[in-house]
Design a protein that fits this description.
Number of strands: 7
Keywords: Hydrolase
InterPro entries: AB_hydrolase_1, AB_hydrolase_fold
Largest sheet: 7 strands, mixed
Radius of gyration: 17 Å
GO molecular function, one term: hydrolase activity
CATH architecture of the largest domain: 3-Layer(aba) Sandwich
Number of domains: 2
Protein name: Alpha/beta hydrolase
Number of helices: 11
Helix content: 40-55%
Distance between the termini: 30 Å
CATH topology of the largest domain: Rossmann fold
Structural class: alpha/beta
CATH class of the largest domain: Alpha Beta
Strand order of the largest sheet: 1-3-2-4-5-6-7
CATH superfamily of the largest domain: Alpha/Beta hydrolase fold, catalytic domain
Shape: globular
Order of helices and strands: EEHEHEHEHHHHHHEHEH
């Protein structure tokens, strides 16, 4: 599929029924959501795509959040003109921004959107942005990945183990897109004025606790952000899933999404 600015966007389509587009988060080329596809395809037409700059999708400079809206608009058009969205992590922020921008979206479900709540968290985010831009501007991808992992609560041991693993080279390929996710999350706090304009039914979910590799985060990091989102999106539903993972087992997550999207 070719987006409005000429960028090719690669996607997988499966199943039949109402359309649901899966929106991945940071350092994800669509792989994290791929296990959800067969779980949801019995009830829905599922589209799992590689966001621009990831996997086999193209990339066109300069980046702008509006280009990601155009990618989603093209995917929505490809499945008939309307679709539900599920956004994980920073992909949840993108889904919410797309709805606020007026795309023809049905229902929106998000999980663990990493907005920053409180002065200390916002300052940490601002410091990360400054250092990330410098690292990527100089082509220091390993440093950019390490900065992101520390921001997400990983320890030095976690980072050392990751950098020695086979997963590290593919992550280096994705490192420039960390800047794109940073744009999706803006200044750090939830964009409450735009959230208040969302009219679609919205499910705001988190786990019951942090994943082990995120132990450096405040325990209620995702929960606080979810509470603020819920309080500003009119009629939003707040849900805590009894898991301790940032990437939820699809057999646990799929029934939650099915219930919500078929309501």
């Amino acid at each position: 599929m070719i987006s409005r600015d000429g960028t090719p966007i690669v996607y997988e389509r499966a199943g039949s029924g109402p359309a649901v587009i899966l929106v991945g988060g940071g350092l994800d080329d669509g792989s994290e959501n791929a296990p959800l596809v067969p779980e949801l395809a019995e009830d829905f037409t599922i589209v799992n795509y590689s966001r621009r700059g990831r996997g086999k999708s193209g990339d066109t400079s300069p980046y702008a959040l509006e280009r990601e809206f155009e990618d989603l608009a093209a995917l929505i058009a490809a499945v008939g003109g309307s679709a539900h969205l599920f956004g994980a992590s920073s992909g949840g922020a993108l889904a919410l921004e797309a709805a606020a921008a007026g795309l023809p979206i049905g229902r929106i479900a998000v999980y663990d959107v990493p907005y920053s709540i409180g002065d200390d968290a916002v300052q940490t985010w601002q410091d990360y942005l400054t250092r990330l831009r410098a690292a990527l501007g100089d082509g220091r991808r390993e440093e950019a990945l390490s900065l992101f992992m520390r921001l997400a609560g990983s320890s030095d041991d976690d980072i050392a183990a990751a950098s020695a693993s086979p997963m590290w080279p593919p992550l280096l390929d994705l490192a420039p897109t960390l800047a794109y996710d940073a744009v999706c999350l803006g200044d750090g706090p939830p964009p409450v004025t735009r959230l208040a304009t969302i009219t679609q039914p919205t499910l705001v979910a988190t786990g019951a606790g942090l994943a082990s590799h995120m132990a450096g985060l405040r325990v209620d990091f995702f929960g606080q952000a979810a509470d603020v989102i819920t309080s500003h999106v009119p009629g939003a539903e707040r849900l805590v899933i009894d898991v301790y993972e940032h990437v939820v087992d699809p057999k646990v997550l799929a029934p939650v999404l099915t219930r919500f999207f078929l309501a």
